[in-house]
Amino acid sequence: MTLSTSHLPWNKGKLVGQKFPLKLEQTWAIRIRLEIAENVRELAMVNMAIDCKLRSFDMVRLLVRDISRNGEVLDRAQVIQQKTSQPVRFEITKKTRESV
After folding, report:
1. What is the value of pTM for the model shown?
2. Integer-rounded Cα radius of gyration of the chain
3. What residues are paired with 68 via a beta bridge?
4. pLDDT per position as a tens digit, 65-78
5. Which of 58, 72, 75, 87 has the greatest count of CB atoms below 10 A from its CB?
């Protein structure tokens, strides 16, 4: 007994798997558009995401107290990743500190 169905795979013709990272021009275009739109919150989030290179889950869990002390944003910060339980140290650039 043979099955002769014409079943198409769900991913035929679709881009699946790991995506390519953003190019430098693309990140600057995003930043500039957010600045022009005066969308301060989103600009701060994009800048922080680019600086810290954390997984998205860890990024959205960041708190203000993780990156600042006494009302000032730190030059460097350290966050414990949830998936690996390893500390991740990263530098917060001047542009990001200003937007935060």
Report:
1. 0.68
2. 20
3. 73
4. 888 888 889 999 99
5. 58
Question: Which pLDDT band holds residue 10 (cuts at 50, 70, 90)?
Answer: confident
Q: What is the Cα–Cα distance from 94 to 100, expressed in whole angstroms?
A: 10
What's the whole-number mean pLDDT along residues 51-73? Answer: 87
Residues 6 or more apart whose Cβ sits within 8 Å of residue 77: 52, 66, 67, 89, 90, 92
**Residue 13, both tokens:** 């013709």
For 74, residues 6+ apart whose C-beta sits below 8 A from its C-beta are 67, 68, 92
How many other C-beta atoms can be found within 10 angstroms of the C-beta atom of residue 3? 5
Using alpha carbons only, give the angle 20, 95, 29 rounded to the nearest 5 degrees. Answer: 40
Contact at 8 Å (CB) between 88 and 52? yes
* CB environment 42-57: b (16+ within 10 A), e (fewer): ebbbbbbbebbebeee
